[in-house]
Amino acid sequence: MALAGCGEPRSGARAPDPPATAAPRAAASAPAESAAGDDAPRRGQPAAPQSRADRRPDLADDPAIDLVDNRFLWHLYRGGALVIPAASEGFRKYDADYASAWGDVVDLDGHAGRALTQRRAQLTFPHAGGAARLRIRLHGVAAGQRLTVTLNGTRLPSRSPAAAWHTETWDVPAGVLERGENALRIELARKGRAGATAAYALVHSIDVAPPGAPDADWPPVSPARRAAVAGDTRRSLSGFDAMALYVEIPDRAWLTFATGAGDSAPFAIRATTADGDRVDLWRADAPAGWAAHAVSLAPVAGQLVRLELSAPAEAAWGEPRIQLEAAPVRPRPPAVRNAILVVVDALRADRLALYGTTRVDTPRITAEGRARGVTFLYNQAASPSSPPSHGSIQTGMIPRVHGVVGDRAQLKPGTPMISTALGAAGVATGYFGNNAFGMARLEKPGRWTEFHQPTREGKSNDCVPLIDMILAFAKRRAAAGERFFVSSLPYETHVPYRYHPGITDRYFPGPWPPPIGKQVTGELLGRITSGALRMTDTMWDQLKALYDGEVTYMDGCFGQLVDGLASAGLADDTAILLTSDHGDGMYEHGHMGHAFGHYAELANVPLVVFAPGLTDEGIAVRTVTSHIDIAPTVLDLMGVPIPEEVQGESLLPIALRRGPWTPRVMPLEYGRSYALRAARWKYIVDYQGRESVFDLKRDPTEQRDLAGDSPVALRYFRDLAGFFRAHRTRWRMREHGALNNHRAGFLRLVGADPLRP
Q1: End-to-end CA distance of the chain, in Å?
Q2: Which of 60, 311, 392, 481 is deepest in the core (most CB within 10 A)?
C-alpha cells in the first residue's frame, strides 16, 4: 500500500487515502462543471471558447490563490513516498520546534542541504500508517558522528553518517507509524563545518516510502518550474505524481489550470474535507499538449480540505489558480477628511447584535451598523492583553515586531504609528482614553497634537465626558481648517463593572447583595479564578448583568459621538472605526478577566467601519481580520501612504467587493503562546507547547479540542505555523500575502524564483 497522505486519528475520524503513484485512467470526457479548451488561459487573457453547456462564469483575476506561488505549501509524493524537502522552504511545514533547530540551505559538493544547527530536531508529518521505509539524504560534517532517529518514541538503529552526500535507510515495521500525524526526532552528536557553516549535518530531503521501495533518484525539492510542452513554456507544478495542499475553499470558486503532457495522460483532482468526506472533483485523460480546464469547487465550497492533484510526474499542471467568480466592486470612495478610532476596553464581540443573537441592548451601534456599517465578523485581537494589543492597533504590527510583547515592554524606537504617519501628513492627532496601562507608553513614540488621560487629569473614567472631550477637539480642529484623527479608549467594559440605574436592571432585577454588589473589581475576579470565592447561579447572574449593563451604557456614548458629529456638521467628512483591545473571560475556560489565553472570549473583538461612500447599507464580512489591519485601514481611508513596515493590510478592497474574498489566516500571540484563526477553524499553542484545534461552526465557545480528531485541520495549521514561526518578524501581507496564500513577494523574500519575467 502506498504510504502517504494525512491519516486517520486515534479517535477514529476518517483520514484521507494515500495518493496513488499515478493518476487513475478515466474517460476522456470531463464532468459538466469542467470546461476544457485547446489552449490554457494565461493570466489576464480569456480562456479558449467553450460550449454553452460547459461554460464557466466570468472569473475575477484578483483576489485569487496562485498555486505556483504557493509552491511551499504543497506536500509532495513520488512513487507513494512523502518527500520532506529539507533543502526547500517547503520544509517549514514539518519543523515542529518552537525555536527551529535548522539554519540556512548550504550548497556543497553538488547538492544543497539545510544545516542542522542544533543537536536535536523534531519534525511532524502526515502518514497513512503501516510499515514503511525511511530514507534520509544527508552529508555528515565530522568524524565519529552518531545519528539517532526516533519515530513516535521508537528508536531506530543508530548510524554513523559519512562526511559525504549519501542516503541512510531504515525499514520501519508496522505499528510504529500511525495513521494520522507522526513525530520524527533526529539527533546527532559532534558538530562540524559544512563549508563556512557550523552544523551537525546537512540534510537534503527525507522520504517516508512504501516498505521495500527501491532506492530512488534524489528528488527535486520544489514542484514549481517552467514546463515546456510542444514548444510552449508555462509556469507549472510538476515533477511529482501526487501533490496535496491543505486549503480553505472560498465560496463561488473555480480551479483553473492547463494540463500539459507529451502524450495523452491521466489527471485527477479530489478533495478530503476536514469532516472526513472524500469528493472526486475531476478526472480525465488529457490530450497531448496544453489543454485548459476550469473545475467548479462548489462541492467543497466554504470547507477546509486536503486538495490532491494526481498525474504522471513528467506531466504538468500549468498556471493553476483558485479563482473567484466575478462580483461587483463598489468604486473606491474619496479619502475621508477625518477619522475617529473608538477602542472600547475589554468589549466582547458576542455582546453586540451585529455579531449574533444576544440579550444585550445596543440600539445605536446596531442601527448605525445595519444602516451604513461594514462589520467584520471574524475580527481577532492581536493579543489578550492591553499593552500588546494597543501596540498592534496603533502600528499594524504583531507584538514581537513593534516590541510591546508584555506588560512592561516598550515600543521599539522608530516604529511607525498611525499618529506618526498622519502627523507627518499635517493631520491633527488626539488621544483621549482612560487606560494608562494600555496606552501611556505610546504617548512619547507617537506624534500627538493632544494626549489626554482624563483620570490622570482629575476627571472621571466615564465615557460621557470622554466623548465631550473628543467632540470639543474635533470642533476646534475643524474650525481651524485642519484635518483630524482621534484615537479613543472608553473604559466601560473593563473592570470595575459598574451598576447603571435603569440599564443594569434590564439584565438582573436585584437585589444586589455582596460579595458581588453593584461593582465588580479586578480583585473580585481574581478571587473567582483562584476558587477563593465560590459562585452561585445568582451571583453569576449579578456579575454578568453588570458587564452587560456597561455594554449598553457604552452604546449610549457611541450614539452621543454620532449625534455630536452630525450636529457639528462633521458626519459626512468623518470615518468611525469601532473595535476593542480584547474581550473578557467569564470563566468559560476557568479564568476571569483577560491576559490568560487566545480563546474566543478574549480573541473575538468587534471591528465595524463607518465611512462616507464605503457602503449604502450595512454589510457583514466573513473574512478573518485582525488588529494589525486597523492602522493600514485608517491610513488608506484618509489617503495617507502606509509605511512599508506595516504587517497588516487595508481592508478597503475587501469591504468594496460585493462577494467572497480569498480566505485569510491571521495570527495572535502573547509571549510564547500563539494562535492561528481561520474562518471556521482555530489553532492554539499554549505556553507549554500544547496544541488545540477548534471547529468554530460547531463549537463557537471553543470547548472541545479536536487536535486528535481532525487530521486535516491539524495538518493545515501545522503547515502554517511553521511559516509563521520562521517568518513572523519579516512578514508583510501587502507584499508577501497571507500565511495561507503566499504571493510572489514571499518567494523573493526567501530567495525563490517567482517564475515571472
Answers
A1: 42
A2: 392
Are residues 625 and 379 in contact, defined by beta-carbon separation less than 8 angstroms? Answer: yes
**Residue (of 665, 668, 635) closest to 650 by Cα position:** 635
| CATH code, 338-749 | 3.40.720.10
| DSSP, residue by residue, 59-121 | EEEEEEEETTTTGGG-EEEETTEEEE-TTSGGGGGTB--SS-SEEEEEEETTEEEEEE-SSEE
Which long-range CB contacts under 8 A does 505-514 form with residues at least 24 apart?
A: 506/361, 506/549, 506/552, 507/359, 507/360, 507/544, 507/545, 507/548, 507/549, 508/541, 508/542, 508/544, 508/545, 508/546, 512/542
| pLDDT, tens only, 478-508 | 999 999 999 999 999 999 999 999 999 999 9
pLDDT digits (tens, 9 = 90+) for 548-579: 999 999 999 999 999 999 999 999 999 999 99
Report the distance separating Cα 646 and Cα 664, nearest Å.
17
Amino acid at 671: G
Phi, psi of 48 (to 5 degrees): -65, 155
Does 81-209 match 338-749 in CATH topology?
no
Contact 253, 300 (CB under 8 A): no
Cβ-contact 55, 35 below 8 angstroms = yes
E strand segments, 364-472: 373-380, 428-433, 450-452
Determine the longest span between alpha carbons in the chain, in angstroms: 84
Cell of residue 60, nine digits: 475575477
Distance CA 601, CA 584 (A): 6
- Whether a cis peptide bond, with omega within 30° of 0, leads into 161 is no
CA–CA separation, 628 and 651 (whole Å): 11
CA angle 18, 20, 23 (to 5 degrees): 140
Q: What local confidence, expressed as pLDDT, does residue 19 receive?
A: 45
For the chain, list residues with pLDDT below 50: 1-54
Q: Kindly report the number of other CB atoms within 10 A of residue 377's CB atom.
A: 18
Distances (CA, A) of 691 to 120, 129, 674, 676: 21, 22, 10, 11
Helix (H, G, I), strand (E, B) or coil at 133: strand
Residue 72 amino acid letter: F
* Contact partners, residue 723, CB within 8 Å, separation at least 6: 72, 92, 93, 739
Report the DSSP pairing between strands 338-344 and 484-489: parallel
Q: In the chain, where are the structural domains located?
A: 34-73+227-325, 81-209, 338-749
Can you name the residues that pair with 105 across neighbouring β-strands? 114
As given in the structure block, the three cell numbers for residue 387 are: 499593552
| Selection from 694, 754, 689, 683 nearest residue 720 by Cα | 683
Helix/strand/coil (H, E, C) string of 26-65? CCCCCCCCEEEECCCCCCCCCCCCCCHHHCCCCEEEEEEE
DSSP β-ladder status, 592-593 and 585-586: antiparallel
Rounded distance, CA 592 to CA 527, Å? Answer: 9
pLDDT for 18: 43
CATH number of 34-73+227-325: 2.60.120
Indicate the CATH number of 81-209 among 3.90.180.10, 1.10.2020.10, 2.60.120.260, 2.60.40.10.
Answer: 2.60.120.260
Q: What is the DSSP letter of 276?
A: S
Phi-psi region of 331 (alpha: psi -120 to 50; beta: other; left: phi over 0): beta
pLDDT tens profile 34-79: 232 333 333 333 333 332 334 789 999 999 999 999 999 999 999 9
